[in-house]
Protein: Conjugal transfer protein
Amino acid sequence: MKTRPLYAQGLIIFALVSPLSGVTAAATTITPTPPPPAMSAYLSPEADDHNGVNDTVYQMLTEAGKTEGFRGGKAQRAWELRQSLEQRARQLDSIYLFSPLINRQGWLPPVIAEATSLATITDRQMRTASHVYNILVPERFVSNPPGWRQYLFAGLSIRSAPTDTVIPRNRAERTVWQNAIRKGWQEGRQSADDTLAANFNRLTRDYTGMMRYSILVKQNMITPPVIAEQHQSVSGNRDELMLGDKVRDLKQRAGFDLDKKKWQPLIQTRAPQ
Structure:
């Protein structure tokens, strides 16, 4: 199992992909709170006719239009993001290489999270720690190593097509429908950006967490899982025959070793210049 230096890979990947959304800073302004409606508003209520469209039809068109627009906008943005990622497939393949992390017995390492400079404060106690490690995802058997596409494409489906479940009947209803489509479309595109950002965070967390496990194993700070193997040359029954049957069972998961006397520092040597 090879180790690679840990670094903020998510930042590198975000630099490769086109900007997802602009961030602007606005000055905080305090606006006066408007007063509640006067009694006249209750005495003579006025109905909003939505340009001639009654409330029931308006609500139906708005909800259906936003749903349709959301699906279409997210599918469009997902397609754009997928194309951008595929253009950088070589960089992503070289950065997120999971195959060397798989153990010879066929299991993928656990994901270890690290936090620094933590403090827990109550009325009667204050507790601090310089480093805290947690096993977020346990080790597991896999048939094939995961890849960045499995992580980044999750929730970014590009399959979407207009439906005819709701059709505006006149110009007024069409205006309501188009406004709802436009609003839902923008929300869908933003949802695709948010989905990719979350996927990037999960990919970087899992990959660096598995790399961190390999380092902690070399330092004897965590014990590897215990795997039991059984070999049978012939097995089965009258309806099934299996030759060379091999079974691997996970008997004990990886866990931290609290005996610091067993720990070994990891010495890094610099390459000659």
User: Anything to note?
Assistant: The mean pLDDT is 85. The chain is about 40% helix and 20% strand. The first helix runs from residue 9 to 16.
